[in-house]
Amino acid sequence: MSDAYLYELADIVRSKNAGPFLVTLDVFIRNEEDYEHVKHSEVITKAAIASAYGIDEDHVVGIYFWDPARAVKITLRRAVSSGAPGDDDVYGAAMHMPLMGLVIAGAGVP
Amino acid sequence: MPDEIRVLAPNALLGYGFPLESLRAGLRERPHVIGADGGSTDPGAYYLGAGTSFTGREAVKRDLRHLLAGAREVDAPLIVGSCGGAGGEPHLAWVHEIVRELVAEAGVSTRVALIHAEQDASIVAAAQRAGKLSSLSGAPELDDQTVGQCARIVAQMGYEPINAALAGGAQVVLAGRACDVSVYAALPIARGADIALSIHAAKIIECGAYCATPGSATDSIIAKICDEHFVLKATNPARTVMAPSAAAHSLYEQQHPSRLVEPVGVVDVSGARFREQADGSLEVSGSRFTPAEHYTVKLEGARRVGFRAVSAAGIRDPFAADNLEGCLEGARARVEDAFGRPGEGTNYEIRPHVYGHKQNGSRKLVDADVCLVLDVIADTQEQASEICSLARSTLLHHDYPGRISVGGNLALLFSPHDVAWGPVYEFAIYHLWEIDDPLAPFPIEYVEL
Question: Which of A84, A42, A95, A99 lies closest to A65, judged by CA?
């Protein structure tokens, strides 16, 4: 067992606005085993997400695991609201990058 | 209610297009209603503030032409939500005019309901004073000035005004700003379908066939809402609706994975069951509804914060790219020399957006391949354009240590170099408004075309 980047375990890693002030990140894990591993790995925490995105922990609004879709949802407060001065991603569609690179130790990728 | 209520969603957004064969196949299922979602806050506050659409007129007219004809053919109402994108008065009038043209061109007559969603600032201010507004997650608190500063305020209607318009005999409902879900859930709820199933189905189909496999925002899906479950079916035989993609779409653009929050209450989909059927459709059951303690609608207000000018250029010389910070400092200094520091006389902000910066770091030359977008916002368009021009010309010729290429630092992308981008807006209001009557903020006007 070796380490894997989160994206290597996922079919989809996406980001999108959830209203103009929040952005929501969805990860769909490819299989049940990896999903359980990620869920119990304690890698996806408010502290880890805040660090990966360079934001305050209280801007991580919520982290949710949703078993029926083998999904992890992370909702963040936007630094700048959608389309306001200083925003560089109006739809919030390219904010998944830092999440893709989280390292999941001992995941099932050789 | 009948055995099932069928709701056809031709695509994710009015004006995105859909294959005509998919619409035809959808019509053969005899839908009870055709819904089309026209809007979103995703494109930013500009479109709400400026009163313009983010979709093109011809594209919207094309979709509406086929939807009006299709709805007429199967004698089902057509409901368009969030007309014109942001759903304010100019947006609603824009779609109304398109429908008027189409009805005249087709030589038919129809009864149209216009549901207004733009809100008078004095009413919103009164609601604020009465403590009826609460800020949504992440949105700023309102101060005494905010409401008056907004260029336009709309409220997202629930399904109730749409059903009132249908009860008023409308064959075409053109709704101002509306919850996406309301467009598709209204008629099923009016006909007695389960509210949790109606809202859950509406949430999944509001992006058209995006929930199918393969997914598409420009193709059609039909929801059949029954007593204990609903069935989702892509009308294009090239797509199936599988459990993972449909479950995935339940949580799309939502803050929470399993709670769908609507004006009337919350649908909890955590217990939902998804069963794939042999014919490529999907049966969904098990969502539960809890009524809200207070009925609330979302308010959206756009405030103008200035005017923008933009310039775009490439930088290829790695030494120029490595010295970009210094060049930008030089450009700021030159602008301050002419206009003062930001806020001292002239209000302005210069934001360089730099894409693709590679450090050179060795003798081997690497094309820096940088894109620089200069983003200047000031109180007036004239100021923004002048500052952008001065910053850009300074960057073009600014010297730095060890400069070899003295012909210019920028590969300017366009002539003219700078664009007057126009007004810039931000969302100043994104709040819940507690109301007693779901119909009151949304007056209905009937027009015989």
Answer: A42
